[in-house]
Design brief:
alpha+beta, Heat Shock Protein 90, five-stranded mixed beta sheet, 5 strands, disordered C terminus
């Protein structure tokens, strides 16, 4: 068995105790005078043993306490040394502070019972109040250090628990901050995609048409659409950059898009998709005077915007129908349908980020979202691509008292 290396402070305590005890012994100063069963030199035996055990007070506290108890029991049969009693008291203290939790709970109780038993025993034996001094000394070198060690240990454990709680709080705060950053980045990505993708898609389609068709009128019309979408896209980018900055220089932030702008949105899509043989229709049956929460209107607007962009990029020739109506209960139902199949001619590439963005917007509002091919409700065997989103509308009315 390898004995752990003693702590530097323990070495200092052991050396100081041994030298102090030797000094008192050389001067003939004993705790019990010269009236003892054993000669004075035997005082050095418990003194040396306790000094050695001080080296183990931190690394092997239980062993030091058990052996120290045997040494201090031997001390009354010698002339005695006050230093031996002090070192034993320190060993009891260390056993509580550095020992196991079970030892820390058991030692104060045990030393208290021993102190009480010694006091009662000597009173019954001597039948003299002076026996109380024996009990007092026993309590000072056993119960007192054990109680002090328990108090110190409790304070240290409380401080460690507080430190761990502070670390956990800091960790949770960092996790919350990281999640907030991720959520904000996702929101910015959705806004950037929804605001700019429509214009860039139109630019890509019309620039491809201008390059592939050798016709001056078609080229001029395509360049006109490209310029309009470039200007509008640049304005949207400037608005987004202004929102991201602490101070954009604007007297007030730009208002978020609402359902009132659907007519303009469909009209813009009609201009951008005319060359692809697409027609756009808006069918709105909801109460136009009813006000909806801003997050619901923004989500509905962006879903329509992205659906129209996808239709311009991928839909076959035919009608693109936008329907906005009141769903079951308090909800807003947005449906966009377009022809679906193999589309000839120039088309813009897609990444799927638009569908992900729409799904995230609906999920944030606890709504339902569907997007995919479906059977056409009309005659024929054609298929349509349908985007359907149901957005719950919270009841903002406060309950009556």
């Amino acid at each position: 068995m390898t004995v752990p290396r003693p702590h530097r402070e323990d070495v200092f305590i052991a050396v100081a105790g041994l030298l102090g005890g030797l000094l008192l012994w050389s001067l003939g100063l004993y705790s019990q005078g010269n009236h003892a069963l054993l000669p004075p030199w035997v005082t050095l035996v418990p003194l040396g043993a306790l000094a050695v055990l001080e080296l183990l007070r931190r690394t092997m506290p239980r062993t030091a306490l058990n052996a120290g108890t045997a040494a201090v029991v031997m001390d009354p049969f010698t002339p005695g040394s006050i230093v031996s009693l002090l070192m034993f008291a320190d060993i009891v203290y260390a056993a509580v502070v550095y020992g196991t939790p079970a030892s820390a709970r058991r030692i104060p109780v045990t030393t208290g019972m021993i102190t009480l038993a010694v006091t009662i025993g000597f009173l019954a034996w001597w039948r003299d109040p002076a026996a109380l001094l024996i009990g007092l000394v026993t309590g000072l070198v056993s119960y007192g250090p054990a109680t002090t060690g328990a108090i110190v240990r409790n304070h240290r454990e409380a401080a460690e628990a507080a430190r761990l709680r502070a670390e956990q709080t800091a960790l949770l705060a960092e996790m919350d901050r990281a999640q907030a950053v991720v959520a904000e980045r996702a929101r910015m990505a959705r806004e950037l995609h929804d605001m700019v993708a429509n214009h860039l898609s139109a630019i890509a389609i019309h620039s491809t048409a201008a390059l592939s068709l050798d016709d001056a009128a078609t080229t001029r019309q395509a360049l006109t659409v490209i310029r309009e979408n470039s200007v509008e896209g640049l304005a949207e980018m400037r608005r987004l950059i202004g929102l991201l900055r602490d101070s954009s220089g604007d007297p007030e932030p730009a208002a978020a898009p609402t359902l009132a702008g659907l007519d303009a949105l469909v009209e813009q899509a009609r201009a951008n998709g005319a060359s692809s043989g697409l027609t756009f229709m808006l069918h709105e049956t909801r109460d136009a005077g009813a006000r909806l929460p801003a997050p619901v209107e923004l989500a509905a607007y962006r879903i329509v915007q992205e659906s129209l962009t996808n239709a311009i990029k991928h839909a076959d020739e035919g009608e693109v129908l936008v329907e906005v109506s009141a769903g079951g209960g308090r909800s807003l139902l947005v449906t966009v349908t377009s022809a679906f199949g193999r589309r000839p001619g120039p088309r813009a590439p897609g990444s799927g980020a638009g569908l992900v963005g729409m799904q995230e917007r609906v999920a944030l509002l606890d709504g339902t979202f569907e997007a995919g091919p479906a059977a056409s409700p009309g005659q024929g065997a054609g298929k349509i691509w349908r985007v359907r989103a149901e957005l719950p509308v919270p009841d903002d009315k406060e309950p009556s008292a």
